[in-house]
Design goal:
The complex is a heterodimer. Helix content of chain A is 75%, strand content 0%. Chain A is mostly helical. In chain A, helix 7 packs antiparallel against helix 8 and helix 24 runs parallel beside helix 26. Chain B has three helices and 23 strands. The two termini of chain B are 37 Å apart. In chain B, the strands form six sheets. Chain B has a four-stranded antiparallel sheet with strand order 1-2-3-4, with no helix packed on it. A four-stranded antiparallel sheet of chain B has the order 5-6-7-8. A four-stranded antiparallel sheet of chain B has the order 9-10-11-12, with no helix packed on it. Chain B is globular, with a radius of gyration of 19 Å. The chains are: A mainly alpha, B mainly beta. The interface between A and B is medium-sized, with 31 and 30 residues.
Chain lengths: 515, 316
């Protein structure tokens, strides 16, 4: 389980259901009467009384007077608007909306009626709401409430880019509104602006206008944003109090373990994951994460044991069998590795990891022909699977090539590129193949694309260097020499960092004493 | 781990190749002014096919595709392929490991190696010795034994090699933890034998007893100053239109110096033209030299001695 594995739930999904309704009431025009009344007062004898009734909470009385006045002046846009207001106060929102629409039929740009209609449409999530709000913005482009409402509507349909655009122009309406702040923070997170999201979640936490349960949720989201922004220490500080509770929450443990791992606190990561496997023994994710740590730190024996325990608790887990196969292979137990990969392939024939593991194990044990045969069949069955096509081509290339195999490898890679044009590894492999066949222009094009897609991968960079040199583009090749050297240095530093820790099994107390 | 000196870009100046262990290998090109420029990365001889640093152990030098240029073969650690770099004649290298068929063998840690024609069919084959580094590993990882067999890849003459698993004889199949390996015709019967140093074990002498109608030629060079072989002098043999080059090396393989007589397999050719490039660039050409003999060529004087197979040097 490494950073960026994407297994943590997005911050707002956890809170959407509970907060969503709150936002509806949180962003509203407060008084429509004020906007209508002064004008209405000059038009009707009821004008002296109606506002008072509405203000004093007697919408029924107001409605009676409005209707009497409308009988005399049926095309009075203000009276229709006041009727909408009175009906809304009486909770007769459908009739209220009709009244506002009647007013708008008389005067389409009448702002108080537009606001009243928009308010009801927004509250009931009517499909008309956005159009009405856009009409308000056409008259009053800086209307913060309209922007806030449009922001929330965009948020509801998970269009965070649009939502943020409106929220940014709705500051006056949403300041101090925890519901809206939540949405802003969530959208910032979704739009890959985790540092700003963390800032908003922290503000939300400071505001403290919610119960303990929601406070925990905000803390979690704050931590997730901090973690995503690679502020691991702060993420850990936010999560540790949550994790100290009993029983600990599953997501909290998972995120905390990831944060410890990312912060190179391997011991704490292992302890957290061990606690997680105890608290949630049937959750394969924690065994997988623990095993991944063992794999990263080349503690293969321990990793295999972790998986064995996992399989006792989650029998039939395809992921755990696949991982055990990997550990067997790392430990040189190729027969057992092959058995595990075959089992995975049986359980989940579509699982590319199993085919990958099996084919690589066969290659490792010198059974190249068998490996190629399996991959050829899989490529025939799944012509649109980029991973299978990539593995098939790699096996052919590894076996050495005659012209037929070269053509077969090229076809497989072209299929893979068509399916996954943004997968750098596929581009790299195709570039290498073209390099081998002296098609330098094609090689350079694919390798450049691969470098663009993954600038940290030295393989395409190195091959691009070679291709440019062979194409006589020495100056560009020379530039890449510097880049490859830098990438090699970075890799070396990462390897040293990884190798700082080896995970070992604790020695049983009895054995220790005996020794 | 191993450094070899030879002229890789055919400019008559010796360059140096250093096999790096988990660092990029280095190719120092002779700048002809007393300095060298490290150009391993730029010339494609520093990293694996995947742009990864490899655990370079031994180095073999030879003209595997018989195009008149010296190619490089480098041995590596277990679970990695050894590498074959093809020289295009300008000192730029192409990694042809997989295309040549070496991708199939990654089971052993490789050490001393040679590019020599073991069966006299013409193109040079590859022999390398193996052995794990850590004796204790096999106790927990049986797939990584300490003692492992030698490996022979036969050159098929078309750019590809095939591994001889059982056909190469018991000396090749025997498991040892080997390190250094020197190659030469120790019994003067015309074919190439090998002396191998094994860790905590007796050395091995692998005698090649080839019984074949195919032909060979072995050339010993002598410079103007005496019988010592002039390091860096180069011999090109042309037989049936195919040109193969070798250079007198001070050392190669792994901590080893080979027989300084240069051996060429000629296949069905019963004679060959021989061209010598002496130190300093002076060329000397000898036409239609008969096969199946040792010849001694002295700078400026041509062939000064010939010996048949079974020749026994005189004791002083």
């Amino acid at each position: 389980m490494t950073k960026g594995s994407g297994h943590h739930r997005p911050a707002a999904r956890r809170g959407r259901q509970a907060w969503g309704e709150g936002v509806v009431t949180g962003v509203l025009w407060l008084v429509a009467v004020a906007a209508v009344f002064p004008a209405a007062a000059n038009q009707s004898t009821a004008g002296d009384v109606i506002p008072g009734l509405l203000r004093s909470g007697d919408p029924a009385g107001a409605l009676k007077l409005i209707d009497e006045a409308l009988a005399l002046v049926p095309r009075d846009v203000r009276l229709w608007t006041l009727r909408g207001l009175a009906l809304t106060q009486l909770n007769r929102v459908d009739e209220g909306l009709e009244a506002y629409r009647e007013a708008l039929s008389l005067e389409p740009a009448y702002l108080p009626a537009l606001q009243g209609a928009a308010q009801i449409e927004y509250r009931t999530r009517s499909p008309e709401a956005e159009r009405t709000l856009e009409r308000i913005l056409a008259i009053d482009p800086f209307n913060a409430v309209a922007h806030a409402m449009l922001g929330t509507l965009a948020y509801d349909r998970q269009d965070c880019g649009n939502a943020l655009g409106h929220f940014e122009r709705a500051d006056a309406a949403i300041r101090g509104n925890p519901h809206a702040l939540w949405q802003v923070a969530h959208c910032l997170f979704v739009e890959s602006r985790p540092a700003e999201a963390a800032e908003r979640f922290a503000q939300l936490l400071e505001a403290g206008e919610f119960d303990a349960r929601w406070a925990d949720l905000v803390v979690f989201n704050l931590a997730l944003s901090l973690y995503t922004a690679e502020r691991h220490e702060q993420a850990i500080a936010a999560l540790e109090p949550l994790a100290s509770r009993e029983p600990p929450e599953r997501d909290v443990l998972a995120l905390l373990a990831d944060a410890y791992t990312a912060d190179q606190q391997v011991e704490q990561a292992v302890a957290t994951l061990r606690r997680a496997t105890t608290a949630y023994p049937r959750d394969e994710q924690f065994y997988v994460a623990l095993a991944a740590l063992c794999l990263e730190h080349e503690s293969f024996d321990l990793g295999r044991e972790v998986i064995e325990i996992g399989l006792q608790n989650v029998p039939g887990s395809v992921r755990l069998y696949a991982l055990r196969g990997v550990f067997h292979a790392q430990l040189g137990a190729f027969d057992q590795a092959q058995a595990d990969f075959e089992r995975v392939a049986q359980l989940e024939p579509q699982q590319p990891a199993a085919i990958a593991g099996l084919s690589l194990t066969l290659q490792q044990t010198g059974q190249m022909e068998q490996s190629i045969a399996i991959l050829r069949e899989q490529a025939r069955l799944h012509p649109n699977d980029d991973v299978i096509n990539l593995l098939f081509a790699q096996a052919l290339l590894r076996d050495g090539l005659n012209d037929a195999a070269l053509a077969e490898a090229q076809d497989a890679l072209l299929r893979a590129v068509a399916v996954a044009p943004r997968r750098a590894m596929v581009r790299t492999e195709l570039g290498k193949l073209y390099l081998r066949t002296d098609q330098l222009d094609e090689a350079i094009a694919h390798l450049q694309k691969a470098v663009e897609l993954d600038p940290s991968d030295k393989t395409p960079t190195y091959h691009l260097l070679v291709a440019l040199r062979r194409a006589g583009r020495q100056a560009e090749a020379q530039e890449l020499v510097v880049r490859v050297r830098a990438l090699l240095d970075e890799e070396k530093a990462a390897e040293i960092s990884r190798n700082r820790f080896r995970l070992v099994k604790a020695e049983p107390e009895a054995e220790r004493k005996q020794r | 781990m191993t450094a070899v000196s030879a002229d890789f870009n055919n400019d008559r100046w010796p360059d140096i190749y250093v096999a790096g262990d988990s660092t990029p290998s280095q190719l120092f090109m002779n700048e002809r002014n007393g300095t060298f420029a490290e150009e391993g990365l730029l010339r494609g001889a520093a990293l694996s096919e995947n742009g990864v640093e490899q655990a370079g152990m031994g180095v073999a030098l030879g003209d595997y595709d018989r195009d008149g240029h010296l190619d490089l073969f480098k041995t590596h650690f277990v679970d990695d392929t050894n590498v074959l770099y093809r020289n295009d004649g300008t000192g730029n290298f192409e990694d042809v490991t997989l295309a040549a068929g070496f991708g199939v063998e990654t089971r052993y840690v490789g050490w001393g190696a040679a590019l020599v024609d073991l069966d006299h069919d013409g193109p040079p084959d590859i022999l390398y010795v193996t052995g794990n580094v850590y004796p204790e590993v096999e106790r927990t990882l049986p797939a990584y034994p300490f003692r492992t067999p030698r490996v022979v890849f036969r050159n098929l003459g078309n750019g590809r090699f095939e591994e001889l698993l059982d056909e190469a004889g018991p000396g090749i199949a025997a498991a040892h933890s080997s390190r250094g390996a020197a190659f030469g015709d120790i019994d003067n019967d015309g074919d190439v034998d090998a002396v191998i140093v094994n860790l905590n074990d007796m050395p091995s002498l692998l005698r090649n007893d080839l019984n074949s109608p195919r032909h060979w030629l072995t050339v010993k060079l002598e410079g103007r100053r005496g019988p010592a072989a002039p390091i860096g002098a180069r011999v090109t043999v042309l037989a049936r239109g195919i040109r193969e080059v070798k250079e007198t090396l001070s050392q190669s393989s792994f901590y080893a110096a080979d027989d300084q007589r240069l051996h060429f397999g000629l296949g069905t050719a019963s004679s060959a033209d021989v061209e010598v490039r002496w130190l300093g660039g002076r060329m000397e050409a000898l036409k239609a030299v008969a096969a199946d003999q040792f010849v001694v060529i002295k700078e400026g004087r041509g062939i000064i001695a010939r010996f048949g197979p079974g020749w026994v040097p005189k004791r002083d």
